[in-house]
């Protein structure tokens, strides 16, 4: 037959086989690595046994006078080395079904034992679903997938029964094997899985006290249905050399703390080419589980052995180990192989790599499809990740309802996941379903989830989903006692007007270097708070501490102080560079902009310009504005590039760029054609992002006047006047007056200068001056005519009074 796997390990020790099996093994050439593990059965059908309770590699040979058919079943996949002759098709079809089940479905048993980093076993060994393609094959010929697994147990214990099993369960013919124990066991399987009478089946299993499959089946049913984890029958089956029982006992010994016994049993199974035992040992050596000292090379060795035997879990584990070493390509290959066996963990891991373009070309579409596939298997991480993608609109449409749906399923799959409960509550809160949010936060809070306790405290404070209770909210903050809890308490005291208690809890949180508290204290000492006056020294003290914690906002804020100098702080280029350089290495666009300014300040034009352009290309608005000004002010202006950068900054709501674009399209020239509609659009956006910008409003009014829309013109002029009153800054109004008065030769500007005089905006009110200006432009401005009529009406009214 040739070698099964060139990298298959030599079998040691050898399993005990019957003389009949040994007779057939001796017929094979001595160079076959599978020699000692190959046995034959009746009717000329031979199944090569590689290991039990894991993925199978079974070689099936059917021969007669009409020809030879040969098929390799590896991990549930068949590869035809020769075409099967037509005369053998009926027999082969039935045997293919059974052998296919043998090759794939046994992987379901005892393969879910996964070791966590703390040495515990995170999954029960009987939870793995049979691969979908196997289920489809089984459903056509057997009423229950578990039946096939049990049949394989039987066949491996007594291969001579294969013909009777095929007849009874595939062909549906009632035949007897002549073996009382085997026939009774078959009857028990029928009773349990076809007739669904478990109690009767258990009685039958009990009546076969010397038959290992029945002994194990009885014990295993007590585990599955009565939760009796250890029975004498399980020990008896293990002592008879029945590997499913041995594996189960190894699992239980490790779990209950008998590490030496558990490890010894695992090592014995691994030496007999049990893929799960090799995988388990790999986990132990990788995770330092069950008293085993970490040894990465040994872990790889055991994982590789298990992988060579087709174990999907070992493929996933080896892939994760490769990831931890930065070997993304090797990891992706392992996940790809395991995903083909429908292992949800690997499907999920492969999807994440494809989204990130790690180890394989980025493929968002396939990644999302893989996540959905794992989600259909109720795999909680995939469900949660799909929810997260829909929440942020990453690679899929943003959809909070989809997020809620996936988060609900993820939480149902893992009800003890308090982080997911908290996330789901936050989604319900965003959707306005506050009572449901409160219920979920309460559930997670009762399980001790600190963030949920604090969210619940906020609910009590604001009366969300419950009656408002400030005392209860503060009690919950004190119960948690973390820096975040102290910060939340400070916010409550601030809103309640207790500045002393607010400052007390802010300082307590800041003592533990809680960055939000440090930044809040920066604001306190920058702007003042209650009776506390601004203090530059304290502001700098807390800002420096926040920067020391690696907070990007604090580092940038402190760098800006050192770049330009603030108050009594002198510019310090060295300190600024020290703060900015690590952020530039992390490709922070604003840090690149500030460092570029320093280079230009030091006359390092080349490095300064290169870094400024890099920052602008990353979308930093200030750098985009700088580059726009650069191309506009060249001896030979490049307005196409200037407009490109101005617009890029405007897309980020950069106010200077919005105003400048409005002016460019308002006035025209320099390669830009006048376009009042576009100018108004930029000014209106500036007005919206600036929270009522009087300068923008004044320009909008002037443009509507030029377009002949007097009603709109006066509407925006009135908005501008009201905005100035809200600002309450005389200097701001005076600056507006200066802007208009310096260009009063333009008709529209004369008109609006008149409006400023009429309303006393930025200058003393002077109705006569306003009238003179209106009269100068009345021939070209209908709005000026209206204002003159309005002034005349006011004078007539005053005269009559």
Describe this structure in words.
- With 801 residues, this protein is mainly alpha-helical.
- It has 41 helices and five strands.
- Helix 22 (450-462) runs antiparallel to helix 23 (470-480) and helix 33 (639-651) packs across helix 34 (655-667).
- Residues 1-145 have low confidence and may be disordered.
SSE blueprint:
Layout (H helix, E strand, L loop, with lengths): L18 H7 L12 E3 L5 E3 L8 E8 L2 E8 L2 E4 L8 H16 L27 H8 L5 H13 L4 H9 L9 H15 L3 H9 L5 H15 L5 H8 L3 H14 L2 H13 L3 H13 L8 H13 L3 H13 L3 H12 L4 H13 L7 H13 L3 H13 L7 H14 L4 H13 L3 H13 L3 H13 L7 H11 L2 H13 L3 H13 L3 H13 L8 H13 L3 H13 L8 H13 L3 H13 L3 H13 L3 H12 L6 H13 L3 H13 L8 H14 L4 H13 L3 H18 L2 H12 L5 H13 L7 H11 L4 H19 L1
Helix pairs in contact: 4-6, 6-7, 7-8, 8-9, 9-10, 10-11, 11-12, 12-13, 12-14, 13-14, 14-15, 15-16, 16-17, 17-18, 18-19, 19-20, 20-21, 21-22, 22-23, 23-24, 24-25, 25-26, 26-27, 27-28, 28-29, 28-30, 29-30, 30-31, 31-32, 32-33, 33-34, 34-35, 35-36, 36-37, 39-40, 40-41
Descriptive labels:
801 residues; 3% strand; elongated; disordered N terminus; single chain; mainly alpha
Helix content: 55-70%
- Regarding quaternary structure, what we see is single chain
N-end to C-end Cα span: 120 Å
- β-strand number: 5
Instruction: Determine the number of helices (DSSP H or I, runs of at least 4 residues).
Output: 41
Global geometry? elongated
**Strands in their spatial order, largest beta sheet:** 3-4-5
Rg computed from alpha carbons, rounded to a whole number of angstroms:
39 Å
Largest sheet: 3 strands, antiparallel
User: What number is the mean pLDDT?
Assistant: 77
User: Low-confidence parts, pLDDT < 50 over ≥5 residues?
Assistant: 1-145
Proportion in β-strands: under 5%
Structural class of the secondary elements? mainly alpha
């Amino acid at each position: 037959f040739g070698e099964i796997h060139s990298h298959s390990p030599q079998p040691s020790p050898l399993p005990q086989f019957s003389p009949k099996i040994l007779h057939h093994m001796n017929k094979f050439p001595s160079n076959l690595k599978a020699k000692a593990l190959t046995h034959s059965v009746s009717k000329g059908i031979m199944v090569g046994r590689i290991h039990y309770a894991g993925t199978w590699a079974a070689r099936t040979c059917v021969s007669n006078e009409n020809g030879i058919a040969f098929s390799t079943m590896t991990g549930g996949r068949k590869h035809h080395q020769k075409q099967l002759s037509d005369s053998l098709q009926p027999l082969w079809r039935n045997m293919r079904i059974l052998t296919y089940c043998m090759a794939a479905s046994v992987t379901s048993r005892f393969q879910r034992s996964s070791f966590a980093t703390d040495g515990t076993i995170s999954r029960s060994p009987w939870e793995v679903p049979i691969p979908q393609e196997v289920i489809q094959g089984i459903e056509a010929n057997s009423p229950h997938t578990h039946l096939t697994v049990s049949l394989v147990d039987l066949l491996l214990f007594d291969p001579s029964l294969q013909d009777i099993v095929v007849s009874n369960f595939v062909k549906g013919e009632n035949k007897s094997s002549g073996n009382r124990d085997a026939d009774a066991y078959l009857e028990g399987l029928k009773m349990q899985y076809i007739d669904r009478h478990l109690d009767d089946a258990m009685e039958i299993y009990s009546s076969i006290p010397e038959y290992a499959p029945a002994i194990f089946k009885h014990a295993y049913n007590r585990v599955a249905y009565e939760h009796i984890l250890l029975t004498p029958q399980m020990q008896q089956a293990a002592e008879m050399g029945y590997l499913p029982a041995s594996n189960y006992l190894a699992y239980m010994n490790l779990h209950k703390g008998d590490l030496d016994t558990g490890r010894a049993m695992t090592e014995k199974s691994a030496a007999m080419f049990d893929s799960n035992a090799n995988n388990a040992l790999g986990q132990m050596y990788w995770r330092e589980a069950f008293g085993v000292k970490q040894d990465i090379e040994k872990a790889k060795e055991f994982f590789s052995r298990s992988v060579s035997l087709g174990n999907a879990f070992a493929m996933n584990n080896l892939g994760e180990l490769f990831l931890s070493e930065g070997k993304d390509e090797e990891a992706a290959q392992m996940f790809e192989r395991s995903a083909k066996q429908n292992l949800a963990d690997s499907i999920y891991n492969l999807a994440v790599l494809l989204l990130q373009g790690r180890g394989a070309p980025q493929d968002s579409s396939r990644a999302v499809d893989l996540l959905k596939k794992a989600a259909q298997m109720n795999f909680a991480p995939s469900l949660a990740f799909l929810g997260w993608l829909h929440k942020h609109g990453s690679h899929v449409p943003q959809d909070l309802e989809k997020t809620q749906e996936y988060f609900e399923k993820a939480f149902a799959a893992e009800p003890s996941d308090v982080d997911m409960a908290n996330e789901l509550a936050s989604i319900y809160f965003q959707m306005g379903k506050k009572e449901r949010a409160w219920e979920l936060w309460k559930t997670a809070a009762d399980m001790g989830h600190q963030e949920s306790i604090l969210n619940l405290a906020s609910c009590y404070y604001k009366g969300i989903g419950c009656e408002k209770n400030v005392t209860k909210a503060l009690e919950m903050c004190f119960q948690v006692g973390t820096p975040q809890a102290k910060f939340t308490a400070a916010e409550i005291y601030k809103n309640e007007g207790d500045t002393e208690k607010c400052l007390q809890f802010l300082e307590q949180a800041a003592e533990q270097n809680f960055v939000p508290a440090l930044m809040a204290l920066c604001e306190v000492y920058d702007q003042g708070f209650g009776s506390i006056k601004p203090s530059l020294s304290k502001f700098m003290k807390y800002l420096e501490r926040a920067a020391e914690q690696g907070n990007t906002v604090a580092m940038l804020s402190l760098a800006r102080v050192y770049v330009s100098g603030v108050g009594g702080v002198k510019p310090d280029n060295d300190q600024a560079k020290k703060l900015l350089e690590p952020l530039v290495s992390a490709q922070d666009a604003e840090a690149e902009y500030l460092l570029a300014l320093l280079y230009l300040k030091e006359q390092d034009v080349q490095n300064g310009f290169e870094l400024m352009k890099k920052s602008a290309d990353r979308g930093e608005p200030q750098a985009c504005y700088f580059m726009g000004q650069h191309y506009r002010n060249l001896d030979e202006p490049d307005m196409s590039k200037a407009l490109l950068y101005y617009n890029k900054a405007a897309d980020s709501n950069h106010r200077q760029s919005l105003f400048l674009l409005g002016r460019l399209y308002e006035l025209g020239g320099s390669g830009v054609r006048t376009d009042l509609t576009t100018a108004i659009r930029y000014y209106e956006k500036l007005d919206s992002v600036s929270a009522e910008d009087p300068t923008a409003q004044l320009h909008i009014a002037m443009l509507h006047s030029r377009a002949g829309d007097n009603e709109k013109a006066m509407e925006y002029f009135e908005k501008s006047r009201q905005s100035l009153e809200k600002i309450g800054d005389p200097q701001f109004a005076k600056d507006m007056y200066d802007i208009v008065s310096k260009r009063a030769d333009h008709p529209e500007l004369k008109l609006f200068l008149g409006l400023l005089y009429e309303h006393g905006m930025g200058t003393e009110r002077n109705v006569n001056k306003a009238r003179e200006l209106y009269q100068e432009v009345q021939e070209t401005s209908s709005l000026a005519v209206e204002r003159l009529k309005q002034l005349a009406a006011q004078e007539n009214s005053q005269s009559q009074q």
